[in-house]
Each structure stands twice: as structure tokens, then as C-alpha cells.
Amino acid sequence: MPDLYPLLFRFAVKVDAHYDVLSRRVRKGLGIAPPLRILPYRGYGTPERVVIKARVLEERKVTPQRQRHTLMSSAVASYKRYMTREIASAHVAVRWGDKRWEGTTDEEGFLELWVPPPEGVRSGWHMVELELLSPEAEGVPRVSAPVRVAGTSAELGVISDIDDTVIATGVTDPLKRAWALFLTEHRGRLPFPGVDAFYAALQAGASGSADNPIFYVSSSPWNLYEHLDEFLSIHRIPIGPLLLRDWGLSRHGFAPGGGHGHKLDKIRGVLETLSHLPFVLIGDSGQEDAEHYRTIVREYPGRIRCVYIRNVPGRSKRGEEMETIAKDIRDGGSELVVVDDTVAAARHAARAGWIRWEEVPEVEAHRREDAARSALGERG
Asked: Which residues constitute the signal peptide according to the record (predicted)?
């Protein structure tokens, strides 16, 4: 019977996609169908090969955060973020310089197009133009999608968890996590103290100008992409591709549920694409980050310089588990470092030669400022 589950989910996804098409036709005939939009995601790759990512959806205008003053208005905004209608089999054109490609969205409206960049493309961020060709292309604005190219100047890559690593979400507490995901605003939430300066130091690398790529993985849904992307920008945390999870019905099953194994697939994809780079992995002890990173160390020997795990208090047996995982990671040729704050991680990274020592006082200063701001917010 379990062998039938993948077939059943694929069938259910197709039925759901056909229903969405029929529903839109009916609503369009009644004149109540909203316009379509292209939501660009941050892509990544090398001078030889990059992935361009986006999603085609019905437009659902969310009230700007500055105009939301009540719990109800936040709840309505969250509802609009989650209750999206995706457009399957949409045809999208991609332009980058003098190159042009076309791609088609899947059943959930996702576009994932692997292409060779223009000749001579340099490391850093580049913008490509996306245009909807069908269906209902008229009136749909063209958008620009950022693409991160990691070239020879990069010294290493960084892959970081988001939940309870960059931002407090209370992932070990279902009620706190639900509150964080559905009823709080990114402008009212603070990152963990010193994260911005530590990640900026890692991005600059030992040379100070390495421009190392940073990737963020999370069990949060793609519906929160704009929410999380703006959070990073507001708090001046180095931007990078966000690798999130498709919630609801998909060809792989029904999410959320079934653990966080999807993160492994996202991390593998990054490591295989940027095969010329070693990596540093960052997570927390509240979920399964350490276990997943142990798997990655085993699967990619010699590629992982270090695993940083932020200690999440309150789990009595976690210390023993971390000791076992640390031994396994050492046996795999890497190192697991459990830290209580970003300053401890920065000092270790400086000793290892991955960041400059002069960045450590900057991390300390940011940690103090962020901690004071957080304490002020709690008192308020």
C-alpha cells in the first residue's frame, strides 16, 4: 500500500490543478477573477549554470504592514499569504542580456529553469527579466528576478537555517510557531543578536572581499517568501537565495508533516551546483539541523569546513545527543561547534581563518545593540 502513495499524491495534484483551471475560467467569466502576477525568487549558480526561479499566482493584494494595527488585520494578511491560487502550465519567457529562454510552471505554479548564463558573467548578483507569455499575459507586468553567481572569488559558501537560528520562531513549541508564522509581522520581530554582523563577516571572508554566497533553508512555506526576504533586508542581514517548503498538497505528499528531511534535498542541490566550494553550515539544536548536517558531512567528505549549532535551552537530553553527533561529524572529517551566541561562533571562525579578527568586535557590538533592543521590546 505505501507504494501507492506517490501515485495517489501525483493524481491528487493533477486533479487539484484541473480544478484550479476550471475555477479560474468560471470566475473570469463572471468578471471576478483577479489578475495574474509573477513572483520572482532568488536564483543561484555558477558562470556555467544557474537556476532561475519564480511562481505564477493570482494577485492577492496584502495590506501593507504599516497599515495593519490590529490582530485581526494581521490574521487577514496571513490568510491572503497562505490561501494562494497557483497557475499551472503558465508559459514564461526569461531574458538575460542577449539570451532568451522559455519555461513552463508545474502543477503548483513554480518555474525552475536551469540555463547557461551569458559569456563572461561575473560573480555577484545579476537581474534577469521574466515575462508571462500565457495564459492571460495582457496586463501582467514584467518582473526582475535576482540570480546569485558564485565564481572563483568566493572562498566558501554558507548554508544557514532560519527558524530559531536567524530569527526566533519557537519551532519547538507548536503554539509559538503558529503565532510567529500567522500573527506576527516581520517589522516587529528581531533577529538573534549579532547575526547580521556575523553573516556579513562570513560573506566578506578571510580576505574581506570574498563575496561568499549565503543560502537560507527553512521549513517555512514559500507563501512567506516575501515576508522573510523583507525581514533580511530590514535587519541588514546579507541576502541570499531562500530555499523554502511547499505547504499543502504536492506530488511529494501533504506538508507540513513528515519531519524536515526536505532541507537535505535543498542543501544537496546547493552543494552539487557549487561543487567548487567548501561550506560552513549553521543551525540550532531545537530541530533536526545537527542530524541533517551530519548526513551532509558523510555524503560530501571534505566539503564541510564546520557545523555551527546555536544551543536552544530547555531540552535536557539534547546535550548527550549533540555529543554523539559531534563525534560522528569529527569522524567524517569536519567539526561541530555548539555555541550560545554569535560572538562565540565569530571567535571560532576567526581562529579558523574564515573571517578577519577585526570583525569580531563588530559582532560583539551588534550583539549588545540587538540584545538591548530586544529587551526594550519585551518591556514595551
From this structure: none
- The answer to whether position 349 is within a domain reads yes
Q: What is the pLDDT of residues 164-179, one digit of tens each?
A: 889 876 555 555 555 5
CATH number at 119 reads 2.60.40.1930
Each residue's pLDDT tens digit, 78-122:
556 656 788 999 999 999 999 999 999 998 899 999 999 999 999
Rounded distance between C-alpha atoms, residue 108 and residue 103, angstroms: 14
What is the pTM assigned to this prediction?
0.87
- DSSP state string for 273-295: HTTT--EEEEEESSSSHHHHHHH
Q: Of 150, 172, 203, whose CA–CA distance to 287 is shortest?
A: 172
Domain residue limits at 116: 36-149
Query: Do 188 and 223 fall within a single domain?
Result: yes
- Beta strand extents in 116-241 (DSSP E only): 124-134, 143-149, 157-161, 214-221
Hey, what's the cell of 349?
A: 571562525
